[in-house]
Amino acid sequence: MKIKRFRSLAFKLTVWYIVILGAIVILAGLFLHQGFKEGLMNDLDEALVTITDEAHEKWWRSRGVTWEEAIEKAEERYASYEPFIQVVEISEGDNKKVEKVIRSERIPEGVFMLETRTYIRADRSDIDSYIFRTIEEDRLSSYPLRVFLFPVRGPLILQVGVSLEATVADLNRLLIYMILTGLIIMLLASVGGSIIINRALHPVKSVVKTAEDITAEDLSLRIDSKNRKDEIGALVETFNNMIARLEKSIKKIRQFSGDVSHELRTPLTIIRGEIEVLLRKDRPKEEYLKTLNSVLEESHRMEKLIDDLLFLSRVEAMDRSKGTEIVDLDVVLNAVIKFRSSPASNKKISIDAKNIKSVRLKGNRELLERMTANILDNAIRYSNPGDHIEIELEKDKNMARLQIRDSGIGIPEKSLPLIFDRFYVVDPSRSTETGGAGLGLSIVKWIAEYHNAEITVDSKVDHGTNFIVTFPLD
Ligand code: ADP
After folding, report:
1. Other CB atoms within 10 A of residue 277 CB
2. pTM of the full predicted structure?
3. In angstroms, rounded to a whole number, what is the distance separating the alpha carbons of residues 268 and 425?
4. Burial class of 324 by CB neighbour count within 10 A (0 to 12, 13 to 18, 19+)
5. pLDDT tens string 217-251
6. DSSP 356
7. Mutate-to-test residue for ligand 1 from 419, 433, 444, highest number of ligand atoms within 8 A of CB
8. Which residues of 220-236 are buried (b: 16+ CB within 10 A; e: fewer)?
9. What is the whole-number distance in angstroms between the Cα of residue 390 and the centre of ligand 1?
10. What is the distance, to the nearest Å, from the Cα of residue 346 to the centroid of all Cα atoms in its chain?
11. Between the CA of residue 214 and those of 203, 244, 409, what are the distances in Å?
């Protein structure tokens, strides 16, 4: 699947990253700007106090000069600030108003004046609360003015102001630097972030690519996790494991269908061969009968095989939660034994089934019947005349144990782990003779698993075989 760029995880993560980083940069910028502004204002306020001190303390009080002179001297000394200085006198008594203003030559009349009540407040102010003001608009300067009011004595208030031009310029410069730095940070971070995110997500792309390349024909492909121990590594490993399981099951299915075709072909080839030989010339009646009997045997084999295959495909599709009932296992077992008593005695094999306890369990009657029949049929088929079979069904508090023991030909040790596999036969010539295709025990195993039962087998060549099925009882 082709993912549109703006829908991709990498794109979304990058956008989120930029948005969050942008918010952090803006917030940090705001704090920085505010802090810087406060610092500048404090410096300016200190300068205003120093200029005031110069005019008041140094000149007017210590040297006893006139206010006009004191103002001029202070302006001269702090010319770099271009200060505006004036002395405002307010009347005494109840109805206070501005009586007189002694102003610097730099200040035209009618400007640089504050409201009367501000002067009155400054007059009253004690040392802790000197009045500083920022006048946004005044005809003195096209920039705001920072003003300090100092109560000299009685009705006299010394007013010093400085234009904020330099401060505003500094702040504007800072703002430009901050915006530029912010943009550079954002640019670098988004390029870097996008590279990192794309690199982190690269294995996902290779997962997608490999998954697209994998087909039922070629499941051998694996993704290289490059030994990553993170979430992506875990994803890659899970994916690889899944493909490995898939590969295994597909291999099994292929093997199975190959085996099925082979097993069906063999009896058909035999049937055709025998009929062809028979038809070549006229033959005595006995030969026809012999061939017909052999054909009948082969068709029985095919029928059994097809029957087993149908059974397997039917039960494998079965829903395990359904079809459970209360089954009397002893009743099922006795019926199966009864049905097999005559073929066994025909073969001179005795069956001893005395120790059969009554066992009730939840399960599927038809399947349990098939399981016991398959094990017992094998015991009869793989025993010789004179051998005997013992069947036991015991019961404990929470489990029941079924044992079918024969004194027959036994199973070689190396074959024991394989006998439950589909189409596995120990001795093909003997199985052909007895009509088996190696499906019987795989069906038994499947039925045992269906009932959560455990199946084990003990066997010794020429001594016999013991199949033990242990059912849990709840
Ligand atoms: P088959 O149809 O060939 O009997 P099964 O799946 O029933 O296939 O059994 C697999 C193989 O296990 C058989 O080929 C047989 O050799 C061996 N086997 C099963 N049961 C017994 C037994 N009771 N005694 C000896 N061999 C057995």
Report:
1. 12
2. 0.56
3. 20
4. middle
5. 778 888 877 777 888 888 888 888 998 998 888 88
6. B
7. 419
8. eeebebeeeeeebeebb
9. 17
10. 65
11. 16, 12, 48
